[in-house]
Automatic annotation (TrEMBL):
One of its GO terms (cellular component) is cytoplasm. It comes from Heyndrickxia ginsengihumi. SUPFAM superfamilies: Metallo-dependent phosphatases. It is an enzyme of class 3 (hydrolase). Its EC number is 3.6.1.17. GO terms for molecular function: bis(5'-nucleosyl)-tetraphosphatase (asymmetrical) activity; phosphatase activity. NCBIfam families: PRK13625.1 (NF010148). This is Bis(5'-nucleosyl)-tetraphosphatase. The keyword Hydrolase applies. It comes from the Bacteria.
Amino acid sequence: MKIDIIGDIHGCFDEFQQLTKNLGYDWKSGIPIHPDRLLGFVGDLTDRGPNSLKVIDIVWELWKKQLAVYVPGNHCDKLYRYCIGRNVQITHGLETTVAELDALTQQKADAYRKKFIELYEGSPLYQVLDDQQLIIAHAGIKRGDIGKMNKAVKTFVLYGDITGKKHADGTPVRRDWAKYDNGKAWIVYGHTPVKEARFLGHTVNIDTGAVFGGKLTALRYPEIETVSVPSTMPFVQEKFKTFA
Ligand SMILES: [Mn+2]
């Protein structure tokens, strides 16, 4: 299979559109179409950026037409719980997506909620593709968990290898699982913003912090090449993780 996997978009629709155009996708039908390639999404489509609903709309339509695969991120999980009426805290970026919904008529907002619920419920927590040679999981996955679906796996793929401890600024401590990974299938993930796509063995983090003024990055598979577009958002240095 030939697929272009897109990092965490977080409502940065313009960057997404430009990136797919640069990758040779045609938007004349209203969605990005390539003659022989699919799109993949590592999750965290929404929150913090300016156009979360537009991103939902396009990804839903691609997914519905089987032109895209999607896995949820932690922001998607929370937005899903919001959409089904759970009592979630409208913080950490969800407030921007909710504000977009609140600006619409009830009917239009319901239509977006319905699409997002359908996309979320219709997608697995992680994708195993191309005869198990390609894995897409929002925050990564341990090799031994591939094929399993349980609460611990869900926590890992949504939030990463969290320890339960917190840094002084309140953000969770995450172990650097990719450093110890060793396996043949490609694991493509996002979740932790880095200035450049981070390759370690057969893992690659393609969250280059589009919403924090970095870039939006795609990984072309099976070529294993990255293509990025610069972000139009203000640069927020402290959001980018550097590894020792
Ligand atoms: Mn995330």
